[in-house]
């Protein structure tokens, strides 16, 4: 058993598991899980005085489990949380777990089977609580992160908890030790160089960030079932390549062949308004960081600001921030083969401005989990693929955000497929944001980018509980976060297909918002063609509580800005199947004998009890 001192351990849930050969097999006796059940509450010291928390309270207990191929986890969970047990019970995403059999529930204990890898929310609660403002934002949650076995090399350089090392690589492999907490008492930034592998042994817990925004690198792997915690505010703000706005993330790396696997990325910063995404690769709104302390990039340059923009050197964008051409594409992805690969990553945050995952141009995100108080996934770049992702959207943000302030370049042919939105709590704030009649919905945004978006395919979206609306998309040259062409134009969105959406309940409307589509209504004089700012040739299909989603569900203030809109019936596709139990496909080459993480049924060391709010 490993007990960390970086986070509390949960006393709200007891989790027992054992491995069987098939669903229905009861030949083993579930034993307490050996991994720690970690416990988080709202980390902000004075959340009532911090609007960035958007009122989010409650708690989250979570634990990593291992499921080998061709086996099934038999799970027994007991809840000690207040007002739970004795009623309805769900293991979400229900569409994946329902085929594995009906759970057996007795009071505060439930047993069930998990026959595939993935991320699962265990809920002793009725679906109706997700339409209750107080109950939903104060819910004590449990998530089970079911991972495939992972083999890590051992002939790597061990990082000491007392190390002063801050640059990793080039051409080296490192590891954070199993069960060890790395906490230097302040914000620590590891700069990542070429051909570098960083491994998190099981239950390693690292309060640091992994950054490379001052150069473009090749062949980086960060892998393992550990935790990377963005816990401390910067020692000094606006240090280029470390704490400038383009670098204040758990992980932000520029380059190609970037592989992130298995990590849990958390943000437990106790201060209010501490910006920081969980994971960015080649963010299209940020420049290459340059060491000019008198002229550090700030996101505010692209907020409520119109061109001309100052020169900022692009990394892999086609143009610099001032729209001059970028001529250096060294170590930039050219296809999905060398784009970023992200899988079995879990992103968890508690404040707005702490968004989820963006894998950049040609990036692939699979089999991952996002629970954040801001936009969950950000398909903002050409050729990306996002599939089989579980999202728990907290009170603010779009589960699938289509863009804000990307610099001028093509943005084509990205695919988002198989997204399981188990909860979408943004109905709590949709009445006030955006400022139009649009809700934040499941898919959309207020698009203020000079990139022309074309040929996106978003399909097979499954939404289980209370949800504000399906699609809320507006193009506006006045978007709060924006990057316009030198002429003040915003890009159009063409041939966007959002199909096979499934909503288990009717939309939950509390007033002031709706499904919404609108292009730019007053483009500047020279803005035409691709830069007219319209939404053209869009296709939508969905089912809402069994009925078809239709144009009547939408507010469309100006049909002329949404030409060619078509509503279709959903495809007669078979129900979704669970994610297969597979090992990672990409691990950076290292030498030395491997170690394989396997489940152990021994009981954990007793930890001091903790309680939720």
How is this fold's topology laid out?
Blueprint lengths: L7 E2 L3 E8 L10 E2 L5 E4 L17 E8 L5 E8 L10 E3 L1 H4 L6 E3 L2 E6 L3 E6 L9 H5 L2 E8 L3 E3 L3 E2 L8 E2 L3 E5 L4 E2 L6 E4 L3 E5 L4 E2 L2 E16 L2 E3 L21 E11 L2 E3 L12 E3 L59 E3 L2 E3 L8 E2 L5 E9 L12 E9 L6 E2 L8 E3 L2 E10 L18 E5 L4 E3 L2 E7 L7 E5 L17 E2 L2 E7 L11 E4 L16 E2 L2 E6 L2 E2 L5 E2 L10 E2 L26 E3 L17
Parallel strand pairs: 5-11, 13-15, 14-17, 15-18, 16-19, 17-20, 18-20, 19-21, 20-22, 21-23, 22-24, 22-25, 23-26, 24-27, 25-28, 26-28, 28-29, 29-32, 30-33, 31-34, 32-35, 33-36, 34-37, 35-38, 36-39, 37-40, 38-41, 39-43, 41-44
Antiparallel strand pairs: 1-4, 2-3, 2-6, 4-5, 6-9, 7-10, 8-9, 10-11, 12-45, 41-42
Overview of the molecule:
There is one protein chain. The chain is mainly β. Helix content is 1%, strand content 34%. The protein contains 2 helices and 45 strands. Strand 8 and strand 9 form a beta hairpin.
Stretches where pLDDT is under 50 for at least 5 consecutive residues are: 1-5, 578-613
The quaternary structure here is single chain
Indicate the overall shape: globular
Structural class of the secondary structure composition?
Answer: mainly beta
Briefly characterize the structure:
The chain has 613 residues and is an all-beta fold. The chain contains two helices and 45 strands.
Characteristic terms for this protein:
613 residues, mainly beta, 23-stranded mixed sheet, 2 helices, 45 strands, 1% helix, 34% strand, disordered C terminus
């Amino acid at each position: 058993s490993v007990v960390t001192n970086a986070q509390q351990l949960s006393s709200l849930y007891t989790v027992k598991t054992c491995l069987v050969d098939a669903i229905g097999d009861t030949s083993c006796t579930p034993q307490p899980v050996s991994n720690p059940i970690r416990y988080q509450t709202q980390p902000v010291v004075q959340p009532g005085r911090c609007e960035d928390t958007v009122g989010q309270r409650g708690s989250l207990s979570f634990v990593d489990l291992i499921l080998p191929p061709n086996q099934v986890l038999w799970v027994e969970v007991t809840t000690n949380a207040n007002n739970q047990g004795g009623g309805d019970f769900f293991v979400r995403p229900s569409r994946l777990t329902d085929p594995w059999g009906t759970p057996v529930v007795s009071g505060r204990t439930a047993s069930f089977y998990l026959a595939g890898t993935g991320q699962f929310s265990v809920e002793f609660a009725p679906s109706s609580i997700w339409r209750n403002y107080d109950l939903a934002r104060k819910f004590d949650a449990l998530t089970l992160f079911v991972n495939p076995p992972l083999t890590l090399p051992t002939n790597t350089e061990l990082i000491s908890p007392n190390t002063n090392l801050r640059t990793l690589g080039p051409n080296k492999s490192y590891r954070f030790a199993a069960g060890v907490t790395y906490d230097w008492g302040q914000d620590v930034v590891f700069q990542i160089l070429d051909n570098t592998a960083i491994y998190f042994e099981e239950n390693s817990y690292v309060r640091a960030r992994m950054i490379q925004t001052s150069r473009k690198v090749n062949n980086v792997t960060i892998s393992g079932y550990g935790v990377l915690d963005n816990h401390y505010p910067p020692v000094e703000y606006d240090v280029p390549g470390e704490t400038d706005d383009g670098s204040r993330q758990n992980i932000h790396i520029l380059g190609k062949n970037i592989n992130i696997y298995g990590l849990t990325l958390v943000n437990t910063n106790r201060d209010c308004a501490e910006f920081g995404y969980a994971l960015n690769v080649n963010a299209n709104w940020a420049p290459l960081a340059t060491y000019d302390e008198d002229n550090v990039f700030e996101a505010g340059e692209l907020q409520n600001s119109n061109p001309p923009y100052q020169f900022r050197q692009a990394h892999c964008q086609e143009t610099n921030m001032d729209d001059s051409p970028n001529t250096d594409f060294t170590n930039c992805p050219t296809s999905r083969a060398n784009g970023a690969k992200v899988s079995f990553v879990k992103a968890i945050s508690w404040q707005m401005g702490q968004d989820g995952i963006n894998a950049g141009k040609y990036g692939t995100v699979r089999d991952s989990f996002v629970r954040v108080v801001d936009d969950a996934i950000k398909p903002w770049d050409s050729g990306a693929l996002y599939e089989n992702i579980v999202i728990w959207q907290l009170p603010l943000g779009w589960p699938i955000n289509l863009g804000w302030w990307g610099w001028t370049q093509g943005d084509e042919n990205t695919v988002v497929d198989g997204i399981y939105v188990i909860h979408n709590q943004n109905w709590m704030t949709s009445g006030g944001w955006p400022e139009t009649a649009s809700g934040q919905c499941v898919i959309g945004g207020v698009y203020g980018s000079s990139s022309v978006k074309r040929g996106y395919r978003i399909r097979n979206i499954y939404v289980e509980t209370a949800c504000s609306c399906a699609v809320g998309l507006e193009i506006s040259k006045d978007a709060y976060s924006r990057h316009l062409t030198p002429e003040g134009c915003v890009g159009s969105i063409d041939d966007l297909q959002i199909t096979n959406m499934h909503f288990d309940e009717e939309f939950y409307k509390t007033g002031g918002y709706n499904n919404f589509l609108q292009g730019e209504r007053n483009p500047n004089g020279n803005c035409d063609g691709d830069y007219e700012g319209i939404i053209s040739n869009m296709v939508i299909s969905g089912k809402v509580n069994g009925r078809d989603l239709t144009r009547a569900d939408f507010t469309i203030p100006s049909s002329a800005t949404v030409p060619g809109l078509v509503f279709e019936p959903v495809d007669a596709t078979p129900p979704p199947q669970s994610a297969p139990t597979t090992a990672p496909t990409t691990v950076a080459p290292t030498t030395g004998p491997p170690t394989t993480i396997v489940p152990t049924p021994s009981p954990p060391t007793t930890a001091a009890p903790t309680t939720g709010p």
